[in-house]
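Researcher: Can you fold this with 3-methyl-2-oxobutanoic acid in place?
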Amino acid sequence: MKNTAVTLIQQKQAGEKILMLTAYDYTTACIEDECGVNSILVGDSLGMVMLGYENTLPVTMEDMIHHTRAVSRGAKNAFVVADMPFMSYQTSVYDAVVNAGRLIKEGGAHAVKLEGGAEVCDQIKAIVDSSIPVVAHLGLTPQSVNAFGGFKVQGKTFEKAKKLLSDAYKIQDAGACAVVLECVPAKLASLITEKLFIPTIGIGAGDGCDGQVLVYQDMLGLTQGHTPKLAKKFADAGALFRQGITDYINSVRDGAFPTEEHSFKIDDDIIEKLK
Ligand code: KIV
């Protein structure tokens, strides 16, 4: 079944968990789609996990379009959401619509995601008015890492929790079709989930959200260095990669690979004539 902005809302209404994972390339998108995720997020986290930057701030529209195109070709049923990179929508409502349009037209995404609450509602409304579904992103919004002073849990005081709830209502009123809640205390995320009619998709926001999202490198054990607390390691693909690559190196060195099985034949006569 094809997943859309409408089916995500229907899943919330039916109490069915929404399954989202990040992907940044064709092969991973094919596997996730085949496994049955509802939505694939081409996150600007690609800046860190694919391009090796320290944070998401250097990611460009060109980076996002390039990776979104690859994912869109692999996603047959999943709802593809592309992140709007830093400074592609904060600058003006006009820039927001033009850049959201590029992610749909050139990238093949079905929706865009942007970070922020009240301050980006004009952008959300204008993009939605252009018939592009928007997923909002509240809580720890990584593009604000410098303003937050680091990657920290958000909404822990009464005032901050109140602002988060108010932002959630505002992005819903502006027309967002779903909202990612990142690093928000579980009870606050549950309350927001109860109050909104659009689905909440949590990452480090407890089990009370309508769905969950993780960066796939984190949940498959491929992340270099520290894996964030919010991510559970569901498999150790990193160990599998290392084992396979080490076996390859040893086999080539020892002459155990390639064998006849992996080679192509030619008539001996031809070789003789060439000598
Ligand atoms: O960029 C990303 O991968 C994200 C998720 C962490 C939600 O925004």
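Model: Folded with 3-methyl-2-oxobutanoic acid in place. Residues 237-254 form the longest helix (18 residues).
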